[in-house]
Amino acid sequence: MADQGSLSARDVHIQWSFALPGLQVCQFEGGQEASWFSESLLSPCAFLFCQTGGMQFYLDHGQVIDLNPHDILLLSAGACIQRIQSAAPCSCGIRMTLDGEEALCALTKFWPVPGTRLQAEQVDVCLQAHGGWLLFPSGLWNSAFFSQLTDLPTDKRGEYCVLKGVELLYLLCGKGLSPMGHRGRRYWDRDQIEAIRQAHDYMLANLGQPLTIEGLARRFHISGTFLKEGFRQMYGQSTRKFLQMRRMDKASELLRTTNQTVLQIAVAVGYESASQFSQIFKRHYQLPPAQYRRQIIKRNV
């Protein structure tokens, strides 16, 4: 691995690089004009790990891929990229290009799992089925990757990127990743799925606490956007709707089984005022809380 210095003619700095047969990895930093990048993506397969800034990839049929910080993009020649543009004054990331079976053989040495071997055809078929590209959005796997990368000494970063690239390919080809959302281009891994499940369970156990998307995202180390999209995909409703329904269920139970005041119940299910709680409760049950309780008592008598 060696420091390549500055490619000033195109306003790009290659901060370090690493190579294996059929494979090249480098950390780049470039300005607003990113046309220099196109030629390096003509290989059969390329990874882009976005650290800061962002990039936009314009495809030949008018589609645009937005690569944001901590996103990972896997590309093949089948993506038919027409133009690449930086989405920020300065963008920094990792580029890894693979050229055929020779590169996959080299990659497999970093992942010596008995009975497994990456096949170029397998990777190509998977990519072509998705239009030649796949986007892995910011999430737990990505955050762990970038955090560990930063902690490593420079001379170890290339090997680490190769190792994680192999892991992504095995997850992809082994069906370890599942489609996310209706766009058909976003993928999540098992850790991300588990984070959403934990957020779901945490909300159920803390209905009386002030819960926000931002707070939950910080607690479970995922982005707010990912939490909202993933939660809707897994549970069929938004986090807001889910939380409101569970709070109303709990409030109904407390009205039926306790003598707590409406204000006490409102606070117990996460509302700061009785009026706000009563308004939402009435919308849900077609009756104000006090009248709902009277009807329950009358029915029981």
UniProtKB/TrEMBL annotation:
Q: Could you tell me which PROSITE patterns the record lists for this protein?
A: HTH_ARAC_FAMILY_1, HTH_ARAC_FAMILY_2
Pfam families in UniProt: HTH_18
Domain HTH araC/xylS-type residue range list: 197-295
Q: What organism does this protein naturally occur in?
A: Evtepia gabavorous
UniProt-recorded Gene Ontology molecular function terms: DNA-binding transcription factor activity; sequence-specific DNA binding
Listed A to Z, the keywords are: DNA-binding, Transcription, Transcription regulation
The record ties this protein, via InterPro entries, to: Homeodomain-like_sf, HTH_AraC, HTH_AraC-typ_CS, PchR_regulatory_protein, Tscrpt_reg_AraC-type_HTH
Protein name as it appears in the record:
AraC family transcriptional regulator
Q: Where are the transmembrane segments?
A: none
